[in-house]
């Protein structure tokens, strides 16, 4: 039987006892009552996270890869921001290279609007073509035994072998390895590893040939 009660020193606040079954409920983990009803404390607590995101934006965000800047300047700024670029990497227009653990091999090209997300490692081999608005994701929300989804993220590396071509708006999910010479069709969502030299397309991506 559930009973409402008044918390001490808060005569106008109605709370309820914690239901032990809620601890094992599927779905995204609930915020506590304190987190929900203390927005100022929550805002202050988020300041370090906001500062890190702002610094990331300044070091590797779209302004660094603005088409108004010459290519050699875009390369130099990204290298100063921690991105490991090989020789003659080109494109790099309005990209957001969020992860601090990115390496891009020589003579690879990044087209307009690519987003490399999270804090996980992203390794792109030499001679790759990365189409416009390609997303490479490294963050994942872990799911518990009872289907609880963690709010915090963990990270999985993504590796793309030499000579791959990723078409426009392809999405590569965390933990995926794409073998050398593979082609990923435009709009594909890559959820599993891809074999070298294969052609993959669809949602989720399947081998076509």
What is the gist of this entry?
The protein has helices at about 35, 40-45, 45-60, 70-80, and strands at about 5, 15, 25-30, 85, 90, 95, 100-105, 110, 115, 120-125, 130, 135, 140, 150, 155, 160, 165, 170, 175-180, 185, 190, 200, 205. The chain is of the alpha/beta class and about 210 residues long.
Name the features:
209 residues; alpha/beta; UDP N-Acetylglucosamine Acyltransferase, domain 1; five-stranded parallel β-sheet; disordered N terminus
CATH topology: UDP N-Acetylglucosamine Acyltransferase, domain 1
Please state the CA-atom Rg, rounded to the nearest Å. 22 Å
Main sheet strand line-up: 5-8-11-17-20-22-23
What's the SSE pattern?
EEEHHHHEEEEEEEEEEEEEEEEEEEE
Describe the structure.
The protein is of the alpha/beta class. The chain has one domain (47-207): 3 Solenoid (UDP N-Acetylglucosamine Acyltransferase, domain 1). The chain has four helices and 23 strands. It has helices at 33-37, 39-45, 47-60, 71-80, and strands at 5-6, 14-15, 27-28, 84-85, 90-91, 96-97, 102-104, 109-110, 115-116, 122-124, 129-130, 135-136, 139-140, 148-149, 154-155, 158-160, 165-166, 171-172, 177-178, 183-184, 189-190, 199-201, 206-207. Strand 22 and strand 23 form a beta hairpin. The termini are far apart.
